[in-house]
Amino acid sequence: MIYTVTFNPAVDYVLRLNSLSQGGVNRTSSEEICWGGKGINVSSVLKMLDTESVALGFTAGFTGQALEDAVKSMGIDCDFIRLDKGFTRICVKLFETDSSAETEINPGGPIIDGKAVDMLLEKISRLRSGDILVLAGSVPCSVQSDIYEIICKRLENSGVLIAADASGELLTRLLKYKPFLVKPNHHEVGEIFGCQIFSADHAEACALRLRVMGAKNVIVSMAEMGAVLAAEDSNVYRISSPKGEAVNSVGAGDSMLAGFLAGYLRTADYQTALKWGTAAGSATAFSIGLANRDTFDKLLKEIS
Question: Which amino acids are annotated catalytic?
Answer without folding.
Answer: 254
